[in-house]
Amino acid sequence: MKLINFYMENWTGEDLIPLPNGVFNFNYNVSADNPVKNNYIQILDILRDSEIQSSYNEIFLRSHWGTKKYAKAFEHKDLKIVFSDQPILEGADENFYLVTPKVHMEDLQEYLAHYTTILEKGIKILFISFHESGYYKKFYNWINTSKHSENIYTITPCYNINNFANGNHIFFSFLTYDLDNNFKMNDSIFSVCKREQYENTPKLKTILSFNRNAKRDHRFWFYNFCKKENIIDNNYISFLEFPDEHVLGYNTMGINELQEYRNDYIANPKPGEISVDIKKTDPGYVENLLHNWNNDSFLYAESLLSIVTETKFFEKDIMISEKVIRPIANCHPFIVIGPRYTNKILEDMGFYIPPFINYEYLNNEEFPWLRLIKTFEEIRKLLKYIDENGELPEFDMDKIEANQKLLLSFQKDEELYNVYSKLIK
């Protein structure tokens, strides 16, 4: 059995629960009728809800507490990970000072000087952020100017972090697959759309596209594209949270199409919320959708394909979020408006990308504003083909179904094992 030790510097409470590394003092208040004693989950909840930026994530929720100042964090196959109060645990193959930011690495600014002192002691530091990545200027500048960057490790969903940060980096596309089993194939009301449902349901709409935050630049331009092409009212396309006056600061880079979009947006009243046609009469139904990746099988069954606007597009860092897994989980043909090489990342994970647009053509364009315009060109071609032929271009439905089965078959322990194993050289 290989052993990795996560060194926790400070502990609190009667049961000696570890504080997030970098935190020295933490006072928690618990009501008399809800004592914390013997319940570390309550302490973790209080910590996560506090103002502390170095916090806890999934690996702590899965922990099993044993003797004081010792806990098992993870065990699968030939790998075991423990929390301890020892910088170097006897018998461990690797030892790391573990840091888990509450959200973003940039939020750890107040702790960086302390982390430097840890590195100066010859201790390796591991930063884990399963959910978020970003081009964190302050954090990466700290890594790149550190004399001990060879002892800095990260596990993040950032695909290209090696392009702008020294150290040792492990890519973990956490939200590309259904790690928390949100998607079910059990014929319940919120079950995923199956192949036979997709193939046997009359198509009422061509496009299904959720765009929660239209303040993200590429979604703002996508809204204007959809408006110009007159495809919003007759499709399942949502746009929420429209930008206000700061749209004037959106950079069109002198591209005529984007300038026309912005001028038209400014000249007309800001649109209200545009929602897809869900069963709003049932509050419980809507509430479930909010926590179930918008998984409503009839929306997928009644539409031809999904257009996914990913979280990132213009940013330097490349990350794929949970958004692209929605159509995959629902056996739905799709295209993605997202970072460069999104298709490559998905293909490397074993997923089939329907050839509705020319991703190679888009990947070859380094300039993101031109890549966005070229993406719109590709979508126009696709919509024209559908309009003329009444169907999607040729694609492999067997592979779309295989995508769904692959996604729903991912096992959390197996995926974490594949990532954690890379920490042992």
Description of the structure:
This protein has 425 residues and is an alpha/beta fold. It is built from 15 helices and 14 strands. The chain has helices spanning 40-49, 58-61, 112-120, 137-144, 195-200, 217-229, 256-267, 283-290, 297-301, 325-329, 342-348, 359-363, 368-389, 397-409, 412-420, and strands at 2-7, 11-12, 17-18, 64-65, 70-76, 79-84, 94-99, 125-128, 152-156, 168-171, 205-209, 236-237, 303-309, 334-337. The longest helix has 22 residues, at 368-389. The protein is globular, with a radius of gyration of 24 Å.
Average of the residue pLDDT scores: 88
Give the overall shape.
globular
Distance between the termini: 15 Å
Q: If you consult CATH, what is the topology of the largest domain?
A: Rossmann fold
Q: Which CATH-level-2 architecture of the largest domain?
A: 3-Layer(aba) Sandwich
Feature tags:
about 425 residues; alpha/beta; Rossmann fold; four-stranded parallel sheet; 14 strands; about 30% helix; about 15% strand
